[in-house]
Amino acid sequence: MSAPTAIRFADRLSNVETSAIRELFKLLGQPGIISFAGGFPDAALFDVEGIRAASERALQHDPAAALQYGATEGYPPLREQLAALMAGKGVAGLAPEQLIVTTGSQQALDLIGKTLISPGDKVIVEGPTFLATIQCFRLYGAELISAPIDGDGVDVQRLEALIAQHRPKFVYLVPTFGNPSGALLSLERRRRVLELALRTQTLIVEDDPYGDLYFDAAPPPSLLALSAELPGSRDCLVHCGSLSKVLSPGLRIGWLVAPPELLAKAVMCKQFSDAHTSTFAQATAAQYLQGGRLGATLERVRQVYAERAQAMGAALRSELGAALGFVPPQGGLFIWARLTGVGRSGAGTALADGHELAQRAIAQGVAFVPGRPFYASAPDPATLRLSFATVGVERIREGVARLARAL
Amino acid sequence: MSAPTAIRFADRLSNVETSAIRELFKLLGQPGIISFAGGFPDAALFDVEGIRAASERALQHDPAAALQYGATEGYPPLREQLAALMAGKGVAGLAPEQLIVTTGSQQALDLIGKTLISPGDKVIVEGPTFLATIQCFRLYGAELISAPIDGDGVDVQRLEALIAQHRPKFVYLVPTFGNPSGALLSLERRRRVLELALRTQTLIVEDDPYGDLYFDAAPPPSLLALSAELPGSRDCLVHCGSLSKVLSPGLRIGWLVAPPELLAKAVMCKQFSDAHTSTFAQATAAQYLQGGRLGATLERVRQVYAERAQAMGAALRSELGAALGFVPPQGGLFIWARLTGVGRSGAGTALADGHELAQRAIAQGVAFVPGRPFYASAPDPATLRLSFATVGVERIREGVARLARAL
């Protein structure tokens, strides 16, 4: 379809392709499909009554604040609640003025791109990393470089070499239960990342939407929390948080913590991006957090996701055996797996292409996302992402059985 | 304050200055100040009960839709309601798929910038125009060219010459009760603008947040509505709408109508800007519009603003006389005025600098915004913007009396 002659698009659009997984998603509407393809929490776990009551209190308490224009930085009572939430996660001494509210953490990523990336700038991301981050940064003209990861998160030695080679504008990491990798950056590596950032004066963006979704033990402290151990390192840190995975994505409440100079520029950019995040949603979230229900909500959510992750892991091992390698996740929404190319018994050969398996799987009535689009460069075509978050345990077993048939 | 060495900002930030009016706004918190400086609707007129009930229905009706991730294009029932709203304003045959929901119309502007503006591209705006548009487009590297306006809106002959000279990426107009000008583009000029757009294949962006706030007769149809008269002209039109001035800014509900190729690119950009607009706010707005209360709300709002505009106009004439020239607005939130440099009786000389008057006015306990920052180029320093929207009639009279003392 060619555009009318009056329309001439901006050059930046040529940096992004339409998503390769979009076609797959179109097939998800087919009846009877069991979907491991989603990247969202289970709506059945939302605390609808708690949110309804919070919204009602917000409108009773101060209707003008909930419905009028608000400060670009965010609704002050929400900034206080979010600072308290961060304190509860080990981030000491964070004043409400040191964070701004964003329209989901996706907007935090957009503001990071807008304030920092000039066309041609280099940015290091994990390989694989969050799909929408790749596209978001590319729209600002970034050249993305992938740092390899394993089950313990990013390979710090390789990261150091890439920083020395490319002098990136910043490094983007999802250290805790990343999407798609599910990987957990170890405490020892977290300390090395901070030390590396400080020594090389490299800005690190820590995206942390999943850190609260642990199954058993809490993960190591965030880079932001750990920065208290290493004086000066907080000046090299940007942190993105979100209520989307723990409370409700529909509120679109995220936040951004950054050094004051960067935060001020992000506020200016936000002013011209959407003026401010919905005060109606912000006042509702503030009332919800103040009401103290998040702890109980999180406990319920963690338990359900832990059961589903456990069920999926067990089913994958029993149904696909040696044909599929994966590190069982300790939290989050995803199992990241790799087709080994050998049969389930460990003998013979089997399909080792995630995209082809995805197509066969649809035919068997089960969907997932092949790993390729999650790489900014050098994709591993044998990888795949399976989300267990929105499917009940019985359906997970049935879905994995279908996957085994597809293989 | 210099940034930590780890932070290197993007080049685009050097295209914008921090707002010249920000200092003035800091003074507004002083006790007793009567403020004509705001650019927002009166929170006392919000239909709080209607919005509360709509929100409750949204959560009862389909809590998952109101709280889960949603389509980037917008919540389908809201797109239907907005298409119906546009049909009620004379835009025939607009399908819900031909508009997308944005996070306030500010985001529509941002998406227009992101999809269309490459650094160095020329864009024609009115002089004066909406402040946040100037900064928004400059962040994408636009070079802005001002087309002069009068009480009947943009000077079409001058606009035609500027288009021929600069071949802009697009022209941005606020044809109806513009901010800050309050001007109303006449029907005859609207037809000429459409004809000009079609003939020169120039994209026109029509920003229309104020069109429903008329005081007496309804304004001429929007460019989008009129485009039905001139086959092919709709392909040259982009239209931004908003619920902010008529229902509530805090919901952050705007929309964008554009040719399909442009709308598709805007959706892609929005996906990486904030994923989607709050579904909680969207579902609430959809229920509100479906409930049919907007008509009554608008009637009340129009009546109050008309009284205030009338009171301010009369007070300005009686207190400042020949010292101040202005065209009484027929709608919107603003009186745009110009210091003539002569005394109130028409004899002698008086102050003709809006910025200086603003500072003197603060000392007298009244605030407004001087006109200078609303110009992308060649500012007229004698201009000023006075908002009557949030001040009662008695206080308007008192405020204008203070303004006269300041002069």
UniProtKB/TrEMBL annotation, chains A, B:
UniProt KW keywords: Aminotransferase, Pyridoxal phosphate, Transferase
One GO term under biological process is: alpha-amino acid metabolic process
Q: Per its record, what are the GO molecular function terms?
A: pyridoxal phosphate binding; transaminase activity
Q: Where is the Aminotransferase class I/classII large domain?
A: 52-403
Say yes or no: keyword NAD present: no
UniProt keyword Signal present: no
Looking up Pfam families in the UniProt record yields: Aminotran_1_2 (PF00155)
Instruction: Give the required cofactors.
Output: pyridoxal 5'-phosphate
* Quaternary structure note: Homodimer.
Family recorded in the similarity comment: Belongs to the class-I pyridoxal-phosphate-dependent aminotransferase family.
Official protein name in the record:
Transcriptional regulators
